Amino acid sequence: MTTSPLFYQAGPALPEVSHADGVYLWDEHGNEYLDGCSGAIACNLGHGRTDIRDAMVAQLDRVAFTYRTQFENAPAVALAEALVELTDGALEKVFFVSSGSEAVESALKLARQYFVATGQPQRRRFVSLRPSYHGSTLGALGVTGYQPLEAPFADITSASLKVPGPDFYRHTDADDASHVERVLAETRAAIEAADPGAIIAFVLEPVGGASTGARMLDRRYLEGIRALCDEFGCLLILDEVLTGIGRTGTWFAYQHYGVTPDLLTTAKGLGAGYYPVGAVLAREHIVNAVMESGGFQHGHTYAGNPLACATGLAVLEAIRRERLLANVAERGRRLEAGLKALQARFPWMGDVRGLGLLWGVELVADPRTRTPFPAAENQFARMTALAKEEGLLIYPRRTLDGLAGDHFLVTPPLTIDAQDLEILLARLERALT
Ligand code: PMP
């Protein structure tokens, strides 16, 4: 037990961070770490960016905070316009928040208020995937399919219907296409059994992020879910808190699949670790219906403040100026090849999957049977500690409800160059060895 008044979660004492620059951090003892996971998949531009600092200081010198009911502020308007443009105008309206959980919470409440406003108050349930993670506030936790987090709140979280998504690593169907077909048929049956007329929205990540170790969906599955939402008259909410803002090589991951949501959440990479900023993007008719029926009964004090939005604008500008989407695609190909080469040597790297610079490795005790390591072995924690000893930060997760093996994410900043990517792979190789 430490004497610090801070409490986050149980675990070993941590070294104190000293400073950071680019894709590297140093601790108080002078140890160097390559940031192979962008903090928590947030520091997408790396550390110590003077361009972001300068934009923030310029805004601080003008005004740091104004409240949204008292003044409009230019950075908020400009950032909202920029985000709409990133969706090619498909989602026309923007609501700012300060975190991913708040973004999901806001999307759920907006979707519910839309149906109340349009005379369908009987719609009061959400559908989401198990496993999944959508945030820690009660509403966002309600759609999260991750048993250890749900357990103390089971009465609340059981109000949502949680269905399995496709699992291209473990399925035993004839091929991927028939697997997707079966999963979609089972999803339809689960919704029909639960009453389609009671569903507000389907909530999911276009690429499973932290909760699944980058478990992939595919175009057919997402098209199938979009079609189910349209048929049942509910909304599609894509959670791009982790996958958005360039992480997968497109501005938003849904753009790989050509399936457009009704609402989209984003956060982490938008502030890039420099300031908390998140957003909900929504189709105009949804927002209009809510606004015409008395407004969106929801909001947070720091939402859309000038400093947050100036930071977000500077981040988007940097991604454009430095052509980082192209960098993500190029470095992503090398990262994929590097991880797969390691997998060939270390067979307990059961599955390597991902997109752009979002890669997950699932660890298994037996690659033939795909049997996970026993949860008590905490292989994810062991792997993370070994990588840290080698000067590499990766993002770990515990075995999920016994559904899958331990996994870790490799998600370096979008700015990583060829040389640092080789250093990342070399340090990972040493940790695995
Ligand atoms: N949704 C997804 C997909 C996430 O990965 C996360 C954070 N890991 C959240 C929501 C919650 O975001 P935050 O931690 O900023 O509240």
TrEMBL record:
Homology family: Belongs to the class-III pyridoxal-phosphate-dependent aminotransferase family.
Name assigned to this protein: Aspartate aminotransferase family protein
Record keywords, A-Z: Aminotransferase, Pyridoxal phosphate, Transferase
Family annotation (InterPro entries): Aminotrans_3 (IPR005814), Aminotrans_3_PPA_site (IPR049704), PyrdxlP-dep_Trfase (IPR015424), PyrdxlP-dep_Trfase_major (IPR015421), PyrdxlP-dep_Trfase_small (IPR015422)
Cofactor: pyridoxal 5'-phosphate
MF annotations from Gene Ontology: pyridoxal phosphate binding; transaminase activity
